[in-house]
Specification:
Layout: H1 3-23, E1 32-33, E2 40-41, H2 43-59, E3 64-67, E4 81-89, H3 91-95, E5 102-109, E6 112-120, E7 125-129, E8 134-136, E9 139-141, E10 153-156, H4 165-178, E11 181-182, H5 188-196, E12 202-205, H6 215-223, E13 227-229, E14 243-246, H7 251-259
Parallel strand pairs: 3-4, 10-11, 10-12
Antiparallel strand pairs: 1-2, 4-5, 5-6, 6-7, 7-8, 8-9, 12-14, 13-14
Length: about 260
Amino acid sequence: MDTADRASVARRAAEAGATVANERFRTRHDVEQKTEKTDVVTQADRDAQAAVIEVLREACPEDAVVGEEDDELKRVPESGPAWIVDPIDGTNNYVRGMRVWGTAVAAVLDGQPVAGASDFPALNDRYWTDGETTYRNGDRVTVSTKTDPEACVVTPTMWWDFDARGQYGRACQALADRFGDLRRMGCAQAELAAVADGSLDGVVTNLRAFPWDTVAGVAMIRAAGGRVTDLAGDRWRHDSVGLVASNGRIHDTLLEAAREIDES
């Protein structure tokens, strides 16, 4: 299967999961907590993941699947093909009836992203990449061309536990000191897609992000002309500490801000 085929499978799988989730959007949900009060899951998450995996198993029955829910793998294999699934990224938004959530599916080979798709049905936006170009609703998109940080909009992404809220405060302060404005969507894949299409200029966290929250969006940003690194400025991987994603033009300034988050 070539990369174009994997991109097509990712699109079909993301659409299948998003369709299941959207059918239950703004209906009653029994919400379960995972490890934190803001880390929640619903039966819709599980059923959407099952719909995604059904598509993947039909197309690529031997490939590994890394998924947020249930018993799927939790680590990305370093060799061979694999798929990374987030059935509902932004579950907190989803259960509150907010529209910013979606289903994300990424294809990786030997640990490197080669294609991906993120489907946001409540926003009527579908993103995908074949590793060379990124599309939104069929139209090619690219990162923004802004070079002045004071004219840029950026976001602190992921979520800091209650015992690390000082880091969240420092992230917001470091960004506010350098950039024109901040946004926080509560859905990492939506934030990364927004960098890919130029709606946002940068995304940053000092945390080690889960692959299902990030890999599809990272692939989109790179294919759209952007840059994604770890806190040291090295090329980001699914197991990197920190994630700094930008249009490339403001990356050094975003890195400066990111490195202040851990300072006490």
